[in-house]
Write a structure and sequence with these properties.
Layout lengths: L3 E3 L6 E7 L2 E6 L9 E5 L4 E4 L5 H15 L3 E5 L5 H4 L11 E3 L1 H6 L3 H26 L3 H17 L11 E2 L3 E5 L4 E6 L9 E5 L4 E9 L19 H12 L5 E6 L5 H14 L4
Parallel strand pairs: 5-6, 6-7, 7-8, 12-13
Antiparallel strand pairs: 1-2, 2-3, 3-4, 4-5, 9-10, 10-11, 11-12
Helix pairs in contact: 4-5, 6-7
Length: 279
């Protein structure tokens, strides 16, 4: 795999240039497990792929995209409905459109609403815990992280807090042709989630996979995560991964963890076959 880490000051994220105009935003593994994202400079527009769970990391994502592409974001794509990929939607300008699969929009009033309610309840205890940790911390970066967390937990509890749903729905596939490069945005149907969307660059041999790909896998996921199934349709999940394993792709951007190669795609297929089809 060939990629270049870009100098960018952030507690939360690292920026990697995967090819000209294509950048992955990888969450800092030292802080803990969280989601990844990315941004794409098509020449005449910048597209954001996914947001991050921590709102401060999404703010850094927006800042990095503007700084590196010298443009305001034109479009945000949500790969699927899980809270850690859509929580930052509200941080983008209301005039900037958000695109997803139809099931992602549908889940805003269902599972996603329930996930937010759980987060709101959890934020009460997390706020108290973080305030206690802040009193003992001496590391400047951790102090800033804890202060940011306190602001976030407080904001979540406000009566006016709202998640922002997508406005544009992608049922199959679309190609966005910029002045410098093009990207294929593809709805692959139910696999990890409902209507999983990827961003594929055939010429540059890069693919943003959302949560179709994790750098690390855990057999405990067969029982779901926080009441949410890890795979909605294991057979289609396998079919999708086999399809993209055969394509000429050098770098895969996972939904979680460090940048991946075909090795992790193969691991995912084996994982699904072992733990989800042979139960």
């Amino acid at each position: 795999m060939k990629y270049e880490k870009i100098e960018f000051e952030s507690i939360y994220i690292d920026i990697y240039k995967l090819s000209e105009g294509i950048y992955a935003t990888i969450f800092n593994q030292e802080i803990g497990p969280s989601s990844n994202a990315g941004f794409i400079d098509l020449g005449n527009m910048t597209i954001i792929f996914d947001t991050l769970m921590d709102p401060w990391s999404t703010k850094d994502l927006i800042k990095a995209s503007k700084l590196i592409t010298n443009k305001e974001p034109s479009l945000l794509i949500n790969s699927h409905y899980h809270l850690d990929h859509v929580f930052g939607n509200r941080l983008f300008s209301s005039s900037m459109p958000i695109m997803s699969g139809p099931s992602t929009l549908d889940q805003f009033d269902k599972a996603l609403l329930e996930a937010y309610k759980r987060l709101k309840e959890l934020s009460i205890t997390e706020l108290k815990k973080t305030e206690e940790l802040l009193q003992k911390e001496t590391d400047p970066k951790k102090i800033q992280e804890f202060k940011n967390d306190i602001i976030t937990y407080t904001e979540i509890q406000q009566p006016g807090f709202r998640l922002r749903p997508p406005e544009f729905l992608l049922y199959n596939k679309m190609v966005i042709n910029g002045t410098e490069r093009a990207v294929e945005i593809i709805n692959l149907g139910n696999a990890h989630s409902y209507d999983d969307i990827i961003a594929y660059f055939p010429d540059e041999k890069v693919c943003f996979m959302g949560d179709l790909l994790f750098a690390q896998l855990d057999p405990e996921w067969v029982n779901g995560i926080n009441g949410t199934p890890w795979s909605i349709d294991p057979q289609n999940f396998i079919n999708v991964m086999k399809t993209y394993l055969e394509k000429d792709i050098d770098v895969f951007v996972p939904g979680h963890g460090l940048l991946c190669s075909k090795k992790e795609v193969k691991n995912t297929i084996e994982f699904l076959e072992k733990y989800f089809l042979n139960q």
